Every structure is written in C-alpha cells, then in structure tokens.
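User: Modeling request: complex.
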Amino acid sequence: MHRWVGPAAILFACSLACVASSPPQSLHGGEELQISDNEPGRYGGTLTVAQRSEPKTLNPVTAADAPSREVIGRLTADLIHINRASQQTEPALAKSWTVSKDGRVFTLKLRRGLHFSDGQPFDADDVLFSFQVYLDEKIHSPQRDLLVVGGKPMEVQKIDQYTVRFTLAQTYAAAERLFDSLAIMPRHLLEQSYKDGKFAQAWTLTTPPSEIAGMGPFRLKEYVVGEKIVLERNPYYWKADRNKNRLPYLDELIFLFVGNEDAQVIRFQAGDTDLISRLSAENYMLLSKDAANRGIQLFDLGPSLEYNFLVFNLNDVQARNLDKIAAEQTWFGDLKFRQAVSSAIDRDGIVKLVYAGRGTPLWGNASPSNKFWVDQALLHPARSIGHAKELLKSAGFSWRNDGQLLDPRGQPVEFSIITSSSNTQRSKMATIIQDDLSKLGMNVHVVPLEFRAMLDRILQTFDYEAAIMGLGGGDADPNPEINVWLSNGGTHLWHLDEAKPATDWEAQLDQLMQKQMVALNYKDRKHLYDQAQEIIANEVPFVFLATPNILGGAKRSLANFKPAILEPTALWNVEELYFLPANGAGAKQ
Amino acid sequence: MQGSRKIIASLVFLFFLHVAILFAGFVAPCDPATQNREFPFAPPTHLHFVDARGRLHFRPFVYPIVPQPGALYQYEETRERAYAVRLFVRGPEYKVAGLFPSHLHLFGMDAPARIFLAGTDNYGRDQFSRILFGGQMSLAAGLLATGISLVLGLIVGCIAGFYGKWIDESVMRLVELFMVLPWLYLLLAVRSFLPLHLTPAQAFFLLIGVIGTIGWARPARLIRGVVLSARSRKYVMASRGFGASDFYIVRRHVLPHTYGVLLTQAALLVPQYIVAEVTMSFFGLGLSEPRPSWGNLLAVLQQYNVVVSYWWMFAPALALVLVNIGYLGVANAFHEQLQSGSM
Amino acid sequence: MKYLQRRLAHSIVLLISASVFCFLLSDLAPGSFFDEMKLNPQISPGTVAALRSEYGLDQALPVRYGLWVKSVLRGEWGYSFAYNFPVRSLLIIRARNTLLLTSLAMLLAWLTALPLGVWIASRPGRWDDRLSMAGTSLLLAVPELVLALGLLYVVIRTRALPAGGMVSVRFEGLSLWAKICDLSAHLVVPLTVLVLASLPILVRHVRASMTEVLQAPFIQAACGHGIGQARLLFRYALPAAANPLISLLGLSVAGLMSGSLLVEVITGWPGLGPLLLEASMSRDLYVVVGVVMASTVFMILGSLLADVMLVIFDPRVRAD
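Assistant: Request completed. Predicted assembly structure:
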C-alpha cells in the first residue's frame, strides 16, 4: 500500500521539477538551427550573477541603461550578431545575407521554422514590426539614431515570408554591425500596444512573464522588486551544440541586485554569485589571495577598449558670461600647454596606484587591445617634467619665486579639474595629476561633482575648466564612436556646438572620419583611421591617461567560460555555459 | 566642587588635543600632500627598541622598508642599517598657525628611512600627518557650524519665546519643517550648483555654513523653552512695570538663563557637526584633494578591499572618538552643573 | 478635540510646505535625469530633448507641482523616470524594509533602555551608575558611521554573519523557519548599529528623568509606606517620569522612516535610504519627493502620537 508512495512521489517531484525548469523542446525537422561548435556540456544548474542596479525596464526599444540592456540581451536575439570573442559579425537570426555592390542594400535570409519563447512562430513580419517601432519618431527610441545613416532612416522591405531587405541612404562601412543588439520583438504580443500608442508602457518590470517573449536563450520567469530577476531556459531557442542538444544548458539565470562593487565582491566570495565582472584591480588582488581555496578562477584579459582622459574646455563661452574661463582658454587653447600637461603626467604612477598595475597607459584613443584598429606606429613619449617646462617656456610662460607658474601676461596659472564623485578611479587620477602638475607650478583644484551635475557642465552650460572622463568600450569598430571626433558630433566634448570646424586639424579629422565611414575596404579604412589617430595624438584635444585591464572571476565549476573584451564580458556566450559535476568527472579546463 | 573638577579635567584634555592639532605642522613629520608613490598602503612603521644584538635602546629606531618584489603593496624591512628616530629635526616647510614659516618638526628621520606612524594611504601619503592636519579642518568645521547654529537658534528662540502666540506657533512650525527635510539632498544640491571658482576651501566652509543653518532648529526649540519660563518670572514682570524695553529685558534678565543651555548645546553640537562633516565627506561632499579632513580620510573605508586589507586606515576614527569623548565629557559636566545649580 | 483639529490642520500645512520646498530645491540642482543619455555617442540630442518634454521637464515649476499633486490624489505619487512606473509601488516595498529594521531597532532599544535606565537611576553614585555613564559616553562618542564600519569589519573578518543585504540568494526556496533565520542573520549588523546608536541617549534620558522624580517627596513617602523596590520604580515613579520620555518616544516614531539612511547604505539594506540616495544622485525628482513625504508623514504621526499620549497618560497636562 505504501510502497509505491515513495517512488511515485519522487516521480511526481521530478516531473514537477522538469515542468518548473522548462526543458528544451526536442528538435524537429524544418527548424533551421544554428550549430554552435563549443565543447558540449550537460544540462542543469542555475547561474547567479550580480548587477549593480536594477534594470529599469524590459522594453528593448526604450531601454537606455546598462542593467536593462544586460537582461534584455539574454531575452532577445538579433539578426546579425557581433561575436564578442572574434569581434567580427556572424549570422544570428539571419542565416545568410547578400550585400549590393555599393554597400547600401542588405538582403537577409531568415532561419525557417523558429519560434519565440512562447511557442509562436517567427518570420519576416516580426522583423518588419520591430524595425517599424525602432524607426518610429514618436517613440524616441535611443536606437533610432543608429539607423539614420546619411540623414535618412533605413528602409525596410519584406521580400517574402523569410527574406527582408534593408536599404541605407548612403554607403556605411560598418553597416552589418548596426544589426547587433537590435532585438527582434514578437508582433503577436506587442502590435496591439503599438497601435494603441502605449508602446513605451509595454514590457515594464511589472508585466507578467506570459506577456513577454523573445528569441533569446532565456525567458522571464520572475521579478522580485529590489532583489532579483529570474530567467528560465527558453525551450524553443534556435541554437544547438554539435550533438544536436538544444542550447542553453543552464536551467535558470538569476540577476541579483547588489548595490556596489564591494558588495558584489562579498557575495562572490561567499559563493552567492557564480561570476563577477568589471572587477577593479584592488578587489582582484583581494580575491586572488585565496582563489585556489575557494574554487575560483580569475581572469585578466588585458587592456579594455575604454579610454580615460583629461579634457580642457575649448567651447565658445563668450556669450555665456564665463569671463574667467574665457581668459583661461588662452592657456588651454595653446597646443604647447596641452602637450606640456601631457608630458608631465605620471601615467605609470596612475597605472600603479589606480589600477594596482593592471592597466595600460594611453597616448591615443585606441587601446592596444583593439588589434584590428590601433595604430601601432604611434609614439609613446616617456614622462619628462623637464621637457614639459621647456614647452611652457617656449610658449611664453614663466615662474615666480615661489614656483607658481605664470602665463605670458603674468597671471598665475590656476584652474580646477572636475570629476565624477562616484567614480573612484577617475577621482584618484585627478589627485595624481594635481600633484604632477604642481611640479610644473600649476595650482590645480580637484572638484568632485555628482555625476549628473558634472555632465550638465560639460554638455550644457560649459561652466568648467578641465574634466576627467572616460569613453569607449562599446565596440572595437571606429564608427560607433564617430560623434566624438566629428566636429558637429554630440560627444565632441572639448568643443561642442561647432557650426563649422574650429581649427584646421579638426576639419582634417572630419574628412578622415567621414571617408572611413563609407570606405568598404578594411585596408582603406585602417589607413584613414591611422591618420585620424595620429592627428588626435598630436593635437591633444584629450590628454589620454590610461585604460584598465578587464578583470573578473568565476567559479571553477563553470565550464565553457570564455570572457571577452567587448561587453557583455562574461555572459555573451551564456547559452554555452554549463556546470561541471561536483566530482569533476568530464572536467576539461 | 566635584562638578567643576570634572569640567576642568575635560577641558584640559580637550586643550591638549586642540594644541596638538593647531600645531600640526610641528608635531607631524611630513607634509600631508607629499605623495611617496613607491610606498602606497604601507603599514605603520615598526619601531624597534631592541637591536639585533639584544641591547635595549631608549631611542627607538627603524629599518627602512622596500617593496616586496613581485607583490604589489607589500613591503619588507631591509636590515642592513638602523636609523634612529630624531627629535627636533629640520623637515618640510609649514606655516605655524598659518602665519609664519618654519622648518622645525618634533621628530623625524633621515632618508631613506621613513617613519609612518599610522601607515600610508593609496598615494603613499603619511597618515599620521594627515590625521593631525585633518583635525584642523574637522575641528574648525565643527566649531564654525556650531557657532552659526547657536547664534541663529538664540535669535529665533528668543523671539519665539518672548513674543509668544502666533509668532511662536509659526516659528515652531518652521522648526518642524527644518527637522523633517533630508539634509543630505539639500547638501548635494547646494554643492552641485556652487560656482567652480570658489577655492575648494571656500566651498567647504560655505557648506559648513549650510549645515549650521539647517541645525538651528533644535537649539532654537530649547532656547524658546527657557525663554518662555524666564519670561513669566516675577522679576521680569516687575522690570516691565519699571518701563524696561523688550531688548533690555531680554539682555539683562532672560539671556543669562540661556547661558547654561547654550554651553551644553555647544558641547553637544560640536561633536555632532564634526560627525556631520565626516558623513558629508563620506558621500564625497567634503574638502577636496589634497587637503585632508577626518571625513575624507575615513571615506576611503567605503572600499571593501581597504577595510579588509589595510586596518591602519581606521586611525582617524580613533581621533574622532577621542575628540567626541572630550567634548561630551565637558557637556556632561556642564549639564550636571546646570542640574545641581538650578534645582 | 479642538486641539487635535488644530494639530491636524498644522500637519497638512507642514506636508504641503515640505513638498514645495523639495520641488524648489530640486529645481536649483542642475542636471536632469536624461543627462546620462547625452553621453551615449549614438543618441542624438534631438531624441533627448524630445524625452525631456515628454516627461514635462521643461514646463514651469508650478505646472509640474500641480501635475504631481494630481498624481498623488490618484494614488500614484508621481512617476519615476528611472523605473518607468508609479512611485508608490517602489515606495511601499522599500518602506516596508526600512520599517522592519527601524521598528525592531526602536523596540529593542526601548526595551533595553527603560529597565536599564530605571534600575541605574535607583542606585545613584554606585559603580554601575558610573559604568553606565562611562559606557554611554563612549557609545555617544562613536559616530554611527564608525560603528557600522567597525561592525562590518568584524563580521567580514570572522565570517560569522552575512555582510550586507537583506536576504540570501536562495531565500525564496527556503522553509519558513529557514527564512526567519536567514532574515535574522542579515538583520544583526544593521540592527546592532541602530540600537547602539540610540541606546545611550535613551538610557540617559530615562535615568535623568527618573532621578528627578525619585527625589520627589511622594516617592519618599511611598518608600516610608514600605512599598517594594520594583513596584515603587515601575508603578509609581516611572509614570511620573513619563512626560519627557513620551516626547522622546514621539521622536523615535518620527525617525522611523529617516533615521537609518546611513546604516542602510553601508550595510546594503534595501530600504528607503539607498533609494533616496540613488534617486537624488540621478535626479529622479518624484521619487525623492515621495520619500521625503513619507518621512514627513511619520514625523507628524510621531509628534501627534506623543501629544495624544501625553494627554492620556499625564494628568498634569490635562489640568493645564
């Protein structure tokens, strides 16, 4: 009577567990899956990852902040994807595509037989709908600006049920890369809210999971406000390993909201989370002390793509009642002044004290790890206070008896550097630079401001003298960063709102960047971009400082872990990750 | 009387503390801004009294440290030569009480030995010197803000208590309003729209002014209470009968009652405002580099790796606690005097 | 009754003035929520400007204030730019977490301070009196910040307790008893800091007012009647000494929402503190106003409660 209760209960529990963790759908013919050539793994396990703040929304069109995009990236898929390890594009939802000779027309063939995570079929109508929303001016999607090339938005045309044609107004070199991270959304779930004009309110964090579906490796299971967001395996995911096992291997992916990096480190040490990325050097040192005991593997991928720099305010401030700054711009505008500052800065000290040695000094905007685009021929002059003083002397500066630097008109050289108070690394750089420049007799004040207040001064009011900032890291290709170097670009920080290029070299830079944007041949583009980098390094619009190494860690039991330099460093191949069994059988490092 | 002995004891303790801090330039061996970039996060210097041969020396000595090869932020002593700690040495220049320059320091070392009594920070700056110089700023902040609060509180409290009725009501509602607002947000906002062209020291003291201005509420309430009770005394009414003006009555009869409260409040508020400065710096609103204050010295403890690995960075907390003990001792003593005096 | 009516009217005026003050202040602070998007090189300035106007950020202050009041009456309490939904839902969860922490702390602090203060007051000048004065002095001298950091250091070094956060990762899957244990383990650090921070003042005040009362003639008379120590202290002296303590209690209740900001931020407790900090740093205007309003409401409740209790418990007040 009672003998079968036990086994039945176990069976029941197992089936419950299976239902609870949404096992992968078995493969059927007609599905054109992408076969991934990773090391085959085993099913099961939950990966827990920490995020610094909560995602604000799950709507791919309105999301602008990093945590939201990180989660959305696991729930959705794009047509053409940039492989984070190779930094090249590869097919995703589009299995192949052809490009017209002039590089303006892309005809993409979609995979057939695929389904969204709720089981509904995927076809060209979904692609059309998605792009319709992205390009809709009334919705103000941040992605819209990406799709406006040559002043006109991209045109999207349905050729047949599984073929879509994209036409650009002009040639664009990195056009394929535009498609990366443009999530394809389900028409059957979102069309209604779009027609009702309520699209921006769709897919917020309070939306029930049944109303959210995507083509990503995971689908939403649960959101607990202020704590975590739980994703479960997408049973219909369109990738499989070579043994025809449908990916992903993991049952669940949990994002924990852990306020700051230190708290993340504590959780990681305690084993609450399985991996940690964007680690600072000091915490890396801390973790490496007993990494072996705790079963942790740490990684140091070398320099990141980010560049930190000191920028001087060269904006037009005449009309704005900022007389003091206008007077100081006679110093900032002098190339020799900027070169002297650059020569006096102890970049090695910055790498040692700010990045605990795990960083690389920079003299240009391309990081050494950007193997496809960095200009290897650029000079890396050593630090020299003497050389800096020579430059200043030749520019007409002099020194008072107490060592204070005086400008050609006899005014003491005194200015402030603003930094973001929440960014410890850049604040530390400011302290080091302040000390370095005091050796030149400059009286520098460090003013940490709250991040948004700082941005306001740099982008709106121009009420600042110098600032330390960081940019880059998004993609290796020069095009996404083009607005920094174009004179009318929105992030041309040292001199915004230029009606026309203010200097000859900026005009030259404009031409070079425009040309490389439309050149289709990599060699041509590289040559043009090399010239641009030389101009940037010689004219010093930014005094480049250093870049941190990409550091992070994961549990040793996590297999197929291949962190990359491009974001998302650890999770870009989340569908391939799996946990090794506890006894280490089948383990392969 | 025992009460006054307690007051004197606390005051003497505070006095010595303040003198040491006032003459920070003399007592501290290093300049607080000098970065020794080869020695970031060096632990406190090990003072030896017994040499290699087992002999005891009165004068402590030091072995110079060098960075351990291969490990970052780790150091080891080189035992080749011992350097004695010397008294009354010539060192980096400083200004005595901000007025005239001097080179004399209480103690110091010959290079290449260094004496870091409280270790160094991220940039290799001597923490002991920074704590002393930081005390100057933190104490000044506390005293200044307290002064502002008390003056404001006195004026408002007197007016409210003396004139009573609707003035009193409206002032008390204003007091409640001030006690309810998140002062942190207020400070964030004020810091952000300050003009950049104030020197950082000016910006700092302006913020102290703001703290003092927000904090008038509690003293005002207390003063009001005292004034209310003083106002109804018989001799005040008699004074009025004699034709005394309001101002005379307040000055001559009411104010003396407030001295006790003012003194106690002062002794209580100074440490509170010092702690407020510490909290401000914790959120990055305090004095900016390279000037030290106890607040920004402690702010580095926000970083987990510092808390775990570099225990000597807690030293400013000790200084803070000592100062607090001193002031609270004084406040206690005053309070007891008040109690016994007025009963 | 009339007194209560007047107090209520005053409270409403206070609420309104606090909200106006907040709005004014946030207007002064430069920068708006969308400034971070401006730094993204791929978003055009036109897009950002359009979003600004959509959220009404370029309308006049009185208009925005009016819109907010309407939203409050609707029950939404304004709209969060960051989270893209009404402030109310955010507030409720965070407020619950904060209240859990602060009300427990208040309970513990009072339950410890009352008997301790009363007992010490009954033995003036003895060694335990001196010890408690010294102890409270020491505790008063250590700022909350240092207490929190120090405790965190100890916990991290000894690995005895979880260092931060409110619950573990696996909380949902635990049994009820395990959940309680887990929550308690996380509560220890912030609770200890809050209790230690408020204990000295409470003990001192209880002791002070008890000492005053114990010198009154009626106590000595009661003593002469032969009434036992405990009964004397708690049944006769304490109610007489209650007046300032009730005001203090009111202050404690008033601080339930706002007193724990620093502790929450340092220990990572997901309450109103970190929310306020994040929102004021990112200029999420309506969240800040919402949090300020919440703490104002408690402040008013606290003093109202104190006044009502005074009237009920202290006959001397009624006589006035």
